[in-house]
Specification:
Length: 374
């Protein structure tokens, strides 16, 4: 059994993907070939956002946006501590200071109360300028953009959504992409929309910011290749990856539906034996991960491994406990939810091609393991 089954998807899309890739091999424009602009048009249409810019990966999507916005040393960027390392890493890479915020007990997304307390503490301390908040849409569910947007506006802060896990999800019925001043996503192969290597994108409705991001993406380019008007990076998406993504985006809406069906079946099966994921009534999730919370997590995971059910732990160590990040400021509310979850969560096989028989196998073995470990 696969934790994420990319082979079944490829079997279904083989002809379409192969011919798209062959077209790139034939025209030979491997860097910024026509598939890039085509895919960016599809992305903008899909998300309903004015500008969609592809880039090399989700980490670059964050770094590029922070650079374009001029986030710099002395700026505080508020991030949840229960996330993949790239969220905080991007902040450090531009020389700013990540300030760790706790997450909510129910959705596992950044806690607005902990965020508010962290901002007030930074203002009171007076050493850093609150410049940006970076919520993460953990496991595929958008963060509480109503409250976070209000807090960001109140403090004149830039809102950069780390939507690496949530592309395709919705908030108040709108698709991810337009909830912050900018939104970054990842097309890492295991993401809900993934390519065959690294890839990412940034979304914004801000015309001026989009122009700067395009320049930062290509070494801070000005009017031509040898005119450099700012510091930038080499952050382009490969044309071959855009070719793959054009075909995958076509089937993405149906795949989201299939993920939702798996999640509903899991919710029903595990409701009595574990803490199942809670999706906010204003949101839909794209189920990048299906994550349970249990007592004796390590024993449950070990038993599942022994009976051939693959699992993963996202995340066993919150960022504020890891050596390179341990000295950065934390919200005065503490990080108790991040620490609690890190000891209790584990994720199950989740992908759109998980057939009902395999789902039942997962359900039976997970229920048994949880009971055995009580
Ligand atoms: C929350 C989050 N942010 C950022 C990233 C970075 O994306 P990439 O691996 O494409 O650089 C990831 C990828 O796993 C992620 O999960």
């Amino acid at each position: 059994m696969e934790f994420i089954d990319l082979k079944s998807q490829y079997a279904l899309l083989r002809d379409a993907i192969n011919s798209r890739m062959q077209a790139v091999l034939d025209h030979g424009m491997y860097i910024m070939g026509p598939e890039i602009a085509e895919f960016e048009r599809h992305l903008a249409d899909f998300s309903g956002v004015r500008h969609a810019l592809t880039c090399a990966n989700g980490t670059d999507a964050l770094v590029l946006t922070l650079m374009a916005k001029g986030i710099k040393p002395g700026d505080a960027v508020f991030v949840p501590a229960f996330t993949f390392v790239a969220t905080a890493e991007a902040v450090v890479l531009v020389g700013a200071t990540p300030v760790f915020v706790d997450v909510s007990a129910d959705t596992y997304n950044i806690s607005p109360d902990s965020l508010q307390a962290a901002i007030e503490a930074v203002i009171k301390e007076g050493c850093l300028k609150p410049a940006c908040v970076m919520p993460v849409d953990l496991f595929g569910q958008p963060a509480d953009y109503d409250r976070i947007g209000e807090i960001a506006r109140q403090h004149g802060m830039f809102l950069l959504a780390d939507a690496a896990q949530s592309f395709g999800a919705t908030w108040h019925g709108s698709r991810v992409g337009g909830f912050g001043d900018a939104t970054a996503t990842s097309f890492f192969p295991a993401k809900p929309l993934g390519c065959y290597g690294d890839g990412g994108a940034i979304f914004t409705n801000d015309d001026a910011l989009a122009e700067i991001m395009k320049s930062v993406r290509v070494h801070g380019q000005g009017v031509d290749r040898y005119d450099n008007v700012r510091i930038g990076i080499n952050g382009r998406l490969d044309t071959l990856q855009a070719a793959v993504l054009i075909e995958k985006l076509r089937v993405f809406p149906e795949e989201i539906g299939a993920r939702q069906a798996v999640a509903e079946r899991y919710n029903e099966a595990f409701g009595d034996v574990a803490v199942t994921p809670l999706v906010d009534g204003r949101a839909t999730s794209v189920w990048a991960q299906y994550t349970l919370q249990v007592d004796h997590r390590d024993a449950v995971v070990a038993e599942l491994k022994a009976v051939g059910i693959p699992t993963a732990i996202y995340y066993p160590r919150p960022l504020h406990t890891q050596a390179p990040y341990a000295s950065f400021p934390q919200s005065p509310t503490g990080m108790s939810q991040c620490e609690w979850l890190a000891g209790r969560v584990f994720s199950l096989p989740m992908h759109p091609y998980l057939d009902e028989g395999t789902q039942q196998q997962v359900i039976d073995k997970v229920c048994k393991a949880i009971k055995d470990c009580q």
